[in-house]
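User: Quick sanity check before I run a bigger batch. Here is a single chain. Can you write out its predicted 3D structure?
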Amino acid sequence: MPVQAYQKAQRASENSRSTEYRLFGQVTGALLDAQNAGAKGAALIDAIDWNRRLWSTLAVDCMDDNNQLSRPLLAQIVSLSLWVTKYSSEVVQQGASLEPLIDVNRNVMQGLG
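Assistant: Done. Predicted structure follows.
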């Protein structure tokens, strides 16, 4: 119980950049786990779905008029989101490597860190 209370307090005090970094870390970890498991089965589908949902959420947020990021950066994030969706289908349907998805997420994490 004390650990859960600490984690809850920690999440409440995080800024959005820290939250995004933590979430990217978790999603990227799931992609790595799927890759280490042979990139097949439920682990793969779950990791790909989670990653797609993360990127889709970012794209929707970028389309919000109140988003204060620069227009070029917003466009790049939306473009990456579209690429993630397309490439994720190639991973699931054609067995493409997970490495490009992992690399993109790691690059974003470096920018957030």
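The mean pLDDT is 87.

User: Great, the batch can go ahead then.
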